[in-house]
Design goal:
Pfam family, one: DUF4276
Shape: elongated
Protein name: DUF4276 family protein
Order of helices and strands: HHHHHHHHHH
InterPro entries: DUF4276
Number of domains: 2
Helix content: 40-55%
Strand content: under 5%
Radius of gyration: 18 Å
Structural class: mainly alpha
Oligomer: single chain
């Protein structure tokens, strides 16, 4: 193990997650967490350009709510779920905010609404994300868009 790796291992930022200030919606301040990760990398003398911190706000499936009409056209039996999924989107400012309890996480919403055929993350999510496209996801999900913008620099 190199001295850089040893110094990085000594930095225990996990307690910082639990002590991180929260936003008005009760979620951890991810911008602060990303700054803490950048600091940990700098303290460990790692080249900062080799590590780009990004913490997905909630589950990946939240990003699929960026375009419910495309999502519900992935499988022919899903069209009837459009109204229910659109209502979930209408209740929040951004798909990234869809979460809460285990039964209200994005995947749980999709598993309940998309049942014929049953929604399967490994099968349906890649196809849905590709058909929705990054442009639409970025337009609806500002935090995700910010992460991609940082990578593109």
């Amino acid at each position: 193990m190199s001295s850089k790796e040893a110094r990085l291992l000594k930095l225990n930022i996990r307690p910082l997650w639990y002590a991180t200030p929260v936003n008005t919606d009760g979620t951890p301040d991810h911008c602060l967490l990303e700054q803490l990760l950048r600091y940990a990398i700098a303290v460990a003398d790692c080249p900062p350009g080799r590590f780009i911190p990004y913490i997905q706000l909630h589950e990946f499936e939240a990003l699929l709510f960026s375009d419910v009409s495309i999502l519900t056209r992935i499988a022919s039996g899903w069209l009837s779920a459009h109204v229910a999924l659109a209502a979930i989107c209408a209740a929040v400012e951004s798909p990234e905010q869809i979460n809460g309890l285990p039964e209200t996480k994005p995947a749980a919403h999709l598993e309940r609404a998309l049942s014929h055929p049953k929604y399967r993350k490994r099968t349906h999510a890649p196809s849905a994300a590709q058909k929705i496209g990054l442009a639409k996801i970025e337009a609806k999900c500002a935090f995700f868009a910010g992460g991609l913008a940082h990578i593109r620099k």
